[in-house]
Queue: 2 jobs
Job 1
Amino acid sequence: MPQHEPSTLLSTVEIIHWLALAFMALVYTIRLFWLFSFRGTKDRQPPGNLKQSTPMKGAIYSLGNVAMPWAMESTRRGWLFYLSFVIFHLGVVAGISLAFLSSLDRSLLEIPAVSTVMMVMLGAAFAVGVGRIIRRIVTPYLRLISSPDDYFSVILLTVWFLVGVFAQAYIAGKLDNEMFLVVYLLNTSFFLVYVPFSKISHYLYYPFARFWIGRTLGHRGSFPYSRG
Amino acid sequence: MSVQVKSHKVKVMEELLAKKLTRQVVASLVGCVHCGMCHESCHYVLTNPDDPTYTPSYKADQLRKIFKANHDWTGRVFPWWVKASTPMTDDDLEALKDIAFGKCTNCRRCTFNCPMGVDTATLNRITRGLLSAVGVMPEGVRVVSKDQWEIGNQMGVLKEDYLDTLEWMSEELEDELGHDRAAIPVDKKGAKVVYAINPREVKYDPRTIKNAALIFYAAGEDWTMTTEGWDQTNFGLFSGDDQLGGICGKRVYEKVAEIGAERLVISECGHGFRSTRCEAPNWAGVDVGFIMESSVITMLRYVKEGRIKVDKTRNSRRVTFHDSCNNARSCGFYEEPRELLRLVATDFQEMYPNRAENYCCTGGGGAMSMSEYTPRRLKSAKLKADQIAATGAEVVVTSCHNCVDGLNDLIKHYGLKCEVKQLVDLVAEALVLEEPVVEEKPAPIEVVEPAARPAEKAAALAGRRILVVDDEEDVRTFLTAVLEDAGATILPAKDGDEALAVAMREKPDIITLDLSMPGKDGVEAFVEFRKSPETENIPICIVTGHPEFRKVIYDRPVPPPEGYMDKPVQEEKLVDNLRRILELKDRKG
C-alpha cells in the first residue's frame, strides 16, 4: 500500500545517495590496499600450549569477542555501556537498511510492524547518541582524548538517527512531508562520503585488528583467555 | 611570526616510525574510536582517578598523533580535525618520555579490554622504541640497556663473578648434600637442557640458582649452564629496541645450539620468558629449533613424571599467586603455575582478579629501573596491595623477578605482613630427596638455612671485624647485637664521615652501609669507599630502608656493592649474606 510517489527531487537525491555509496566503496578499497601495503608479520615463535589454543581458535575468539560481553572485564562491568553500544549499532543497521530499502523496496518499510521496529531502533539509537554526546563532553578523560572528528562523528550519527525516525514515519504515511526522506538521504550521502575519512571507518579495520591480535595470542595460548 | 623547526631527533623518530609500521600496528593505530572502554582497566587510572592523562588511549594517542600527521590522509590534510600532530622540540620528546615510560608498564591489561582489538601496550612500546632510538629514555633504562649491549647481561655481571657465584652455589650444595654430584655443570657439551637465568639471581638471589640446581639434580636431569648467553632477560622489550631484543635472544639461542641441547629452560622471569620464547625469534628473524620452556613447566613435568617427589606439608603457610603480565596475558601461561603450587603447598588462596585479568605488580615494563617514577609506581601499587591483603596470604608466589622486586617494594611501602617467593623456592623446600644425601650420616637431608643452626650461627662471622654504619641508634644496636652473636667484632659509625674515618683507620673486613643518613649520606660514602685505594677492596653490603635507591647505587661509576639488603633485615639472612660475601672474598684472595 504505497503512501507516496517519489518526486523528481527525491529521485535525484537517491541517485546522489548511490553515487556516494560508490565513492565510499572506492575509498574503502583504496584504504584496504593502503592497510595491506604495510608489511605483515610472521609469528616465528613456537606455538604455546596447543591444548589450550591455536592461532585460528584465538582469531575466532577475538572476532567473536564483540558478542561476548561476559568475556571482557570492561564490558562485563560496564554492561550498561555495552547495552548502549548494541542499541547504537542496531540503530546504524536500521539506518543503513532504511536508506537502501527506501530506494530498492520501499513497500517493505511500509509494513506497519517493520516500520514500528525501524522507528524504535532509530529512536533508541538517537537517545543513546545524545547520551554519548553528553558523556563525551562531560567526562574529563573522554574530553582529553576526543578530537573534533570524534564529536562530529557522534553528532552526525545522532542527527542521522533522528532524521531517520522522521523519514521512516514519512514512508509509513504518518508524516506528509517528503523533505524528511530527502534530508535523510542527503544526510546519508554526506555520511557515506565522510565516513572513510573519519573514525567511523573503524568497522573497516576492526575485523583485521581483532583477527591479527587473536591469531598471535591464540598462537601463544593466551586467547581465549582464562580469568578468575 | 616565528616558524618552529622540527628537531633532528624528531625527524629521526619520524623516519624510524615508518620502518616500524606493520599491518597489525597500523590496524591498532587506526582502529581506536576513543570509546574509553580501556580507561578503567589500567592500574594507574584506578589509583589516579583525577588524572586523565593515565588513560590508555591517551597514551596510545601520543604515537597515533605522529602516525596521523605523517601517514594518514585525513591527518595530513586536516591535522586539527583528527588531532594529528608531531613533537617539534627535544622538550616535547621529554614530555613524551614521561608518558611512555613513566605512566605505563606495558602490562597489556588495556589491550585485553579493548573491544576493537587495539594493542595499546604494543603502541606504547613502539613509542618507547622511537624515543630510545634517539637517546631519550630514563637513565636507568639507558644504563641497563648499555650493560646488556656491551657486557651481555642487563646487570653488568662480570664473567668471573657469574662463575664464582655458580661455584659458590655448587659448594653450598656440596655442604648440604655431603657430595658434589649436584654441582652446577657449566658449558657441558651435549647436555639435554640448558638453563638460562636472570642476572638478578646472581646479584641478589643466588639461592634460586642453588634451588634450581638441586631440583635438576633430584630429577636426574642432564643439564648445564653456560658461560655466555646465560641471561634470558631482555631490556629490548622494555626500551622498545627490537635490535637489542633480537641480539639478546640470539645470544641465548646460539649458545643452546652450540651445546647441542634439546631444550632451553628459562628461569622464572616474566619478561625474560616472553622475550626469549615469544618475541625474540620475531625480533631476530630466526626460527628456533629447540624447545623453550619456563622452569615452572619443567618442574611441573618432573613432579608429574615422578622424577622428583615433593611433600607439600613443608609449605604450610597460606600462599597466593601473582600472575606476571608477560607470562599470563602475553604468553598464555595461566594454569601451570597454579597446578604446581597446589602440588607443593597446602594452603593456596587465589587473589582476585587473576590470570588474564590480574593487575600488574607495578614493577613491570622496566619500572624498577626508573627510580624517577618510583612515587607514581608505589601510588599505583595500592591496588595490588589491596589484592594481596584480601587473600590473607603470608607468602606471595610469583614466577617473575620483576614482580618479586615490585611486590617486595609495595609490601614494604604498604606495611603488608607477607613475603615474596618464587615457585623454585617452594619446590626446593618441598623436595623429598630419596637418597641418603649425607653419606656419613644416615639421617635424611633437610635443606636448612645454615644460620639456623646455633653452633654454626655463632661461628659464622667469628673473627670478622664489621663496620656498621647507620644513623639510627636502634638499628645500630640491633645490627651490632646480631653480628656480635655471630662472632663478629663491631665498629659502629653513625654517618658517612665517621664511617670513612673508621674504615681508613681500622680496615674492617666488611661494611654494612645505610644509605639515608644526615651529613654525608651512604651514597656519597659508598663512592668514596670505592674510590679510595685504602678502602676500595673492602666489601660493602648496603642495608637500607629505601629499596628504590638500588638504581642510584648501581649507577655509580664505581664497582657495585657486594650485597644489598632491604630493611627490616632478618637476622639469619643478614648473617648468612655477610658470611657468603666474606667467603667469596676469601676465595678470590
Job 2
Amino acid sequence: MAADTITLNDPTPVLGASGAATGTLPGKHARTAKNVGWYVLLSLLSLVVLFPVWMTLVRALSTPVAYVNEGLPLYPVSVEWDIFSRAFSEGELGRRMWLSAIVTFIIAAAQLITSILCAYAFAFLRFPFKRLVFVVFMATLMLPIEVTLIPNVTTIRNLGWLNSYEGLTVPFLATAFGIFLIRQGFMGIPKDLLDAAKLDGYGHFAFMTRVAVPVTRPVVASFGVIALLAAWNQYLWPRAVVTVSEWETVQIGLKSVAASNVEESNIGFAAAIIAALPVLLLLIFLQRQLIRGLTAGAVKG
Amino acid sequence: MSGVSFEGVTKRFDTVTAVDALTLDIVDGEFMVLLGPSGCGKSTALRMIAGLETISDGVLRIGDRVVNNVEAKDRDIAMVFQSYALYPHMTVAQNVEFPLKARKYSVDGGPPRKLTADERAERVDDAVKTLGLAELTKRKPGALSGGQRQRVALARAMVRRPEVFLMDEPLSNLDAKLRAQTRLDIVELHREVATTFVYVTHDQVEAMTMADRMAVIADGRLQQVGEPQTVYERPANLFVARFIGSPPMNTIEGEVAEAGVVAAGASRIPFTGDVAKGRKVVVGLRPEHLHLGEGDIEATVKAVEWLGHERHVIVDIAGSKAIVRQETDEGAAPRIGETVHLGHHVENVHVFDAGSTERLN
Amino acid sequence: MTAADHLTPIEPVPPPARSAGLTGAAVGLFLQAVILGVAGAVAAVQALGLTLDLLVGIVWALVRSVGIDAGTPDLFPDLAIDNLDTYLLLAVIGACLLLLSRHEVRLGQALLAGDPEAVPSAVGLQWWFLGIGALFAFWTLVITEDAVLFPVVAVVLPLVVLALVAIGGGRPFPRGAGGDSSFGGSERWNFRSRTERREALLALVFLAPAFAVFYGFFFYPLGRLMHFAVYQQNRTGTAERYVGFGQLTDVLSGDEFREGLQHTLTYVLFTVPAGLVLGIVLAVVANRRLRGIKFFQTVLSSTVATSVAVASVIFFVLLNPQVGYFKVNWLAEPDQVLFGVSLSSIWQNLGLTFIIVLAGLQAVPDELVESATLDGAGPIRRFFSVTLPIISPTLLFLIVVLTVFAFQAFAQIDILTAGGPAGASETLVFKIFQRQQPIDLGEGSAMALGLFGITFLVTMGQFLILDRRVHYGS
C-alpha cells in the first residue's frame, strides 16, 4: 500500500519543479511588482514600530508650550537642540549611567565567571550527588526576584547594604540560566579533548580557560550579552534597595528626572532616549550574539 | 623511556569488571599491541596507563614508579586518540605546541625546565616536518582531511618525546589505503624515537604487522602474550586460536582415540604431542593447512567461494563447518555435495581441551 | 553440546551469605522504626486530641443552642480550634510516620533473613527518612525556630544504615552516585581514590560561589517568606508573634490578593495574545529573501534595545493624560488603565517576540513548505497547516515567557500610573512592592507565596513544554 502511494506521488515533484521554473521566467515583472508590495508593507510596519520613538524624539526636541499651542503635530516645533546636553546634566545622567555601567559590569562579569565555573563542574567533573545539586541549582529559575523581594530587601537592610554596590549586585552574582546555557555548550565538547589536555600536562582550570571556554565562545558571548542587557535594564530591585537619589541607576532615575521636571517634560523624554542609547549600540554591534542569546532555548538548532 | 608493568590490575565499573587482574610487563622500548574484540577492556587498560581511569585494584608501574595515584597530567605520557582529540580552535602549529607549554622538559640531560619560545618552535617545526605537515601549520583541524588530522595527532604526541606512547585505535577512522600507509609510518616512528609504544586495536592485521609483542585480551582477562608469530602458531587457548587468523581457524570436536590421534566422526586426525586417551578435545586446523586430496579427514563440500587468487571450500567435518583454502592453480574446484579427503601435516594440528579450552599439545 | 558451551562453564551461584553488615543494617532500620513510630504516635495522639476537642466543642455548642448554660469545656487547653490547619497537617504527618515505621520493620525482618533483594529498598527508604528529616528541620526552623533533634537524627541514622549496608556487601548507591552517563560516566564514585576526591573538592570550589548566592538570595528568603507568612510583626519590626496559617489563608482569600490577581490576569490577557499575534505578523512579513531585508529585520527587532522603563517613558509621551494623542485618556479611567499600560508592554516585547518567531520560521525546512505548495495549498493554508504546527513549540515557549513577563510587570505601572487611578492598576507585584513596612511583611509575604505558587505552575508548564520540544527534535 505504502509503496503504491509513493510511486503515484513520485512524478509530481518533477512536474511541479519544472512548472515553477517556467513560471518564474516570464514572470520577472510580476515578481518585481510583488517585491515592491512587500517593501511597502515592510516600510509601513517599520514606521508603526518606530512611531513611538519618533514621537518621543519630537517631544524631546520641541519646547513643550509651543508644541501644545501648535496642536500636537507629528514634527518638532521650536526645536531646542541643546535639550540632550541639558537632560544629561540636569538629569545627572552622567553619574547615573556611570553607576549603572559599574553595576552592570560587576553583575555580568560575575555571572560569567560563576556560570562558567558551575557549568564546568557539571559538565566535566565527577562528584557525588551531581544530579541532585544540578536540580537544586536549576530550581532557582522558579524563584523570580519578585517573589523573594520582601525577605531579600530585609536581608539587604540587615546587612546595611541599602544604597550600595553590594546591595545592587550581590543577589545577581550567579544565575541558573547562565549555568544551564554554558553547560549545554560544554556538553558539546568531546570528552577526549579533556583527556588529551590532561595528558598534555594541563589541569582542569587550564583546560577550562584554554580549551573549554574558547571552544564554546559563541555560547559564552551570547550569555554575556544577555547578562549585560538584563543587568542594565533592571528596575524592581534597584527601586527596592535604593532610597536616596545618589544611588539611583539610570532606569529608576528616569522616573525621578520626569518627576522633577514637570514643567519641562521634554527633559524627561530626552533622558529616556539617552538611556536607551547604550543598549542600542549593543544591539547594533553585537546583534548576532544578542539574537543567539535571546533565541537560546526557544528554537532548536 | 621506560617500561610499563601491570600487577594484578583490576578496573571495576558499576556492574562490570572491565579489566580483571591483568598482569603484563611491557618492556622498555617495545611496541606492544593490545588486541581484542571491542568491549574487552583493552582500551580501559590503556586509559589506566594514561591515568584517565582510576585503578580499582592492583599495582601499575611506569618505569620503577608506582603510578596508581599519579594524575594524568603528572605522568610523562603521550596518547593518540581514536577521535584524534585535536583542539578545534587552535591551528595545527598551536595544537602541536600545546603540550610543550604545560610541562617542564629536560634539555640535553639538564634539570627539567620550561622551554623557551625558540626551543618550542624548533621542536614543533621538527615534528611537523617529519610528518609532512609543514604546509598546513596555519590551518585549523576543521580544514584538514582525516589522514592529516591523524598526523597532527601523531605530531602532537611525538613533540613531547614522552616516556610512553599510547595509541587507541588510531587508524580506525581512516580508509583502507591510508590505513596501510599509516601503519608503516607508525612503525617507522617507533624505530626513530625508540620509545615504548602501547597500541590498542581490534584489527589483527594491525597487530600482526606492527607489534613486537602482542597481548590478546578477552572479557577483561589476558589470554596470551607473545610475538605475533608465536601467538599465531601456538595459540594458548581456543579464544586466541579463533580470534587470530583470517579466515579463522577451523575447530573440530573429537576425542583422543589413541596416542597422537583424535577421532571425530569418520575422520581420524593425527597430531603431535602427548594427550591422554579418551579425553574430549577440540582440534584446531588453519584453512591454509588443509589440502584437498589424500588424507585421513573425510569432509562433505557445502559451498565454494571464488576469490580470484584462491578459493575457499566450505566443508562439513563431523558436523563442524570448516574452510579449506585452495590456490586457484591447485586444480579444479570440488563439486558441492561431493565427499572429499583432506590432508595436513601433523605439526599443524592444535589440540585444545574441550572443557577448559586450554592448549594441550 | 558444542564447543562454545565449554567456553563459559556454568558455575553454581553461591547462596547469599548472611553477613554482619546486613544484620547491622536491620538493627539500624529497627531503631529508625522506633523513632518514627514514637514521633508518629505523638502526632497522631495530638491530632486525635484535636478531633475530640472539636467534637466536644460541637456538642457543647449544640447544647448551648437549645438554651442550656453548660459552661465551656476545657479538655485540651493547648489545642485551639484556630489552629485547625496545623493539626490537620499533624494528623497527616503522624499517619505517614506510622506507615513508614511499619514498612521499616518489615524491611528489617527481610534483611535479618539475609534477603539481598531487600537491600535496594532499604537504601531507597533512607531517602524518605532524610527527606522527612529535612522537612522537619525546615518546619522547626521556619515556624518555631526551635531545637532540631529529630532532623539531626534523621541525617545520622540513614548514614549509619547506608554504611552498614555497604559493609554488608550491598551498594549504598545502586545506580552510581555520579549519575547516569549523561552526567559524565556510569562509574561508581570511588571515595578511596585520591584523584576522585580531589576532583570532587575542585567541584566544591567551583560550585561554592554560586551556591552562596543561591542560598542567600533564593533558598533562605524562601524560608523567610514562609516564616513571615505565619507571623505578625510589630510596627517597628522589633518583635513578632506566631499567628498561624490563618494569616496566609486570610490573605490569599482576601480582597487585596484577589484584586491584585485579577489585575495581573487582565494584564496577561491584554499583553500576551496581542503581543504574540503582532510578533507573528511582523516575523512572517519579514521572513523572505529580499535585498535589504536585514535592515528591516533590525528595525523591527529594535525594541529589544528599550528597557521597560524607557518604553514606559516613551508611552507616557503618547498616553499622557494632559497632552495625549488619543481621544480617550486610558490612563485616567479605572476600567481602561490596564489596557493603556499594556500598550507599552506589547510594544516593548515586540522586538523579542519578533526575533524568536523569526528564528522559529527560519528553522522550518524549506522542503515541507515546498511540498505543501506542490500539493496545491495556497499561502494562507500553507501557513496554518504547515508552518504554524512546526513552529508551535516556539510559540508555546513564547506564550510562557510573555506570561511570566506579564506576571512580573512592575516598572510600567510604577512609571505610568503608580498603581492608580484608585488602585485600579495595582498588580500583584506592585502590591507586594508596597508592603515593605514591618507591619505589612506578613501580608506581603503571603501574597508573594501566592505569586510563587502561580508562577511555579506557569514555569512548570514551561519545563514540560521544553521537554516536549526535545522530543519533537529527536
